[in-house]
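Researcher: Before we compare anything, I want clean individual predictions. No alignment, no superposition, just each chain on its own. First chain goes here; please echo the sequence and then give the structure tokens.
Model: Echoing the first chain and its structure:
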Amino acid sequence: MKYLLIILSSFIFVYCGTTTIYKDKKVNLTVIESFELFNEGVRMNTENNLMQAIFFFTEAIKLNPLFQDSYFMRGKVYYILEKYPEALNDFYTVISFGSKNSNNYISSYFLMGNIYIKLHEYEKSIECYNNILILAPYSSDIYHERGIACLYLGRMTDAITDVTLAINIDSSKYTYFDTRGAIFFLMNMYERAFNDLINSLRLNQNNALAYANCGELLLRMEQYELSLEFFNTAIAQDPYLKTSYVGRARLYIIIAELTDDNNKKNEYIEKARDDYFNSF
């Protein structure tokens, strides 16, 4: 009986050990499989096969519900597809893991802020940006996007402060000058707006919208010949930019009103009609 107990106890020990090893192998296999699915999702995303990417990220999450990267990448794909509720759910999940120093954590808050701007929930957007500025105090993009949210809320001084901070951190992005130029424009500070747009064009000479906005600013400053040059350049660069045609049509009407030559007056009115037609 004594020997039987010893044999049984040895058998139980070996069996339990085998089970533990089996479970560990199973866990390891699950982790490996989830990584493989995740990598396939990344590949699908790179190839712009977005629905397939979502499928693989979802399968990776099913195998490993703690796989933060899968939630983040799936959220990014949902963001691209403008499926904002789904994207927010995934980004909130990433944040719930609490890895504050990770890029996924910071990027999730940033993209959530962008989503709330698109949803016109500007206070929520600002709250998202505030949550990560402590962790990324030198991120020009965060200041820029928070400045846009402030602009939509009508907080012009805050908007200018934030976008100026973005420019001071990184003056190589023409979009920052476009944004601050737009704020100055809305505040009727036309010369400052024009200077920012010129800086934008120095960084990107193919920025048709900046040319069109310069044309509009010069029109308001009654510099009509120069205004016409900028509108013409904008249309040459982007024949489908409707604001250029609308602005130039208004300019032609003003020029027509200022001329005493009836033939030229009719010519400019006809040009204005053509531009209004092209704006539709």
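Researcher: Okay. Second chain, same rules.
Model: Second chain and its structure:
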Amino acid sequence: MKHDTAPLSASLEDYMEAIFHVERQKHAARAKDIADRLQVSSASVTGALRLLAEKELINYAPYDIVTLTSKGRKVARNVVNRHEVLRDFFVKILGVDGDEAEAAACKMEHGVSQGILDRMTQFVTFLDNCPRGRHTWHESTGSFCAHGENPALCKQCLQDCVKSMQTNAEAQKREKGV
């Protein structure tokens, strides 16, 4: 079997993601499970499985179960992670409907760079941990601030946020003995 190091196409990444989910659900995947999940023909699945096996990302033999190799599991987890980060960003940060977010994430997961993905993850983490990050989008004001158009309250909110972050940073330094 030859080892191919060329990057995966978007289509093959979709197969890796499908195998990952089916294998996680059923402990092993069959070509039919993959075809059903991706809504493609058996012939398409067979061709993709052969290519993925050549790249040593899956264990595959015709009419047998399909499993991810350890290398394949890393690749699949990466694709799944990109998808989940994008979907969560669209839903949690942008307030996009779940179905629309899912469809957009599926299309975009193949093209987003790791650097952008890391920054999105950091941003979501920041908002999850920041006292101000818990505010929600207000359609009436077109902002995330709970105080809307009252700048005085917003300024106080921001000052409280900074003070809280400084307190947390000082506590972390004490814990580390710095």
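Researcher: What stands out in the second chain?
Model: The two ends are 54 Å apart (CA to CA). Additionally, The longest strand covers residues 58-59.
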